[in-house]
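User: Hi! Is it possible to get a structure for several chains at once, not just one? Here's what I have:
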Amino acid sequence: MCVGLSAKVVSVNKDTALVDASGARREVSAELLDDLEPGDYVMVHAGVAIAKITPEDEE
Amino acid sequence: MSDHQSLLSNYSGRPLRIMEVCGTHTHEIFRLGIRSLLSKNIELISGPGCPVCVTPPGYIDSAVELALKHHAVIATFGDLIRVPGSEMSLAQARSLGAKLKTVYSPLDAVDFAADNPEKEVVFLAVGFETTTPSACIAVKRAAALGIKNFSLLTANKTMPQAYKALQGSADAFLYPGHVHAIIGTELCEELKNDYGVSGVVAGFTAEAVIKALGMIVEYAQSGEPFCDNAYTSVVKAGGNVAAQQLVNSMMEPCDCVWRGLGEIKGSGMKLKSQWSEFDAVAKFSLTPDDGKCNPICRCGEVLKGICKPCDCPLFGKVCTPINPVGACMVSGEGACSAFYQYGQ
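Assistant: Yes, the chains can be modeled jointly so their relative placement is included. Here is the combined structure:
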């Protein structure tokens, strides 16, 4: 159930974003993430972008 | 072969029991064949992190009542449909006329309600911290659009009390990455410092799971409690603050029954009273109870890591994915389903 889908942000419109997950496009809620921009990668769960995916932090 | 993979295969230290808390981890670990890489001194136990598996029969009874008595359309993630209730599952209720709609997101259920104003639409809000924000966003959107025919039947759960209840079931937890994407990693520190509970936050690819398991084995050598984050690309220390604030503004903790584990104080979330017009229990004056499980089913012990699915007398005989008796066989993420599917 907690499976997430990583997707690339295509466009942002206020609280929603159009994302591309391996070619499948879908509108998702973007209201939990600030400053999303086209080209960002996000983790999408149940139609909501829950986290921005960043390069692995240095350990 | 990576260093971690080699460590996991060649480990010869004291036997380690590692509980993967998340149903998605359970499924991915089987699908990716990770168990076959592990030394016999490393045992993986499947914990209670599949929300479908811990949904009690009384909750299904309420959904069936909403569908058959109040003629509501039940919007739900697909795998809840076959979970047994006390008398019947939603799939069985469908044969008596219940209307079910499978959705990918609660926001899709709001859209469906907007398109069908003559129908009452109830979304079955199960899930952990990962999923609860989406239910809140759905209610907020319905309120903003003036949609009156949408409500939630909440069974949202939170992990902190469950981790404490499961303390001692395993040497370490493989913490669920997407729960901690929301709540952050401070809880892991608190569990380590205050309860001596160990674990590592893990992602979901083969490399991510192997890395997290390898870190657990490395840390466990010291004998001291530990925690770490092996999923830093998604999980930040503070989590998703906007999601936390949204959920805390709309919902409040409640006592909650977990199938197989019983009631865990303060482990559920329900809508606050100002949102009661979106709460199906209040809206339809339901009086939910715990419901009845098949007394022979050992799902509860499977969820606590006390027994394996194949130790249950029903497993693979009476209880199969086609005819599930317990919830762990229903969901593709359930331990019994995974054991059955992958022939363990």
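The longest strand of chain A covers residues 5-13. The beta strands of chain A are 5-13, 16-21, 24-29, 41-45, 48-52.

User: Great, thank you!
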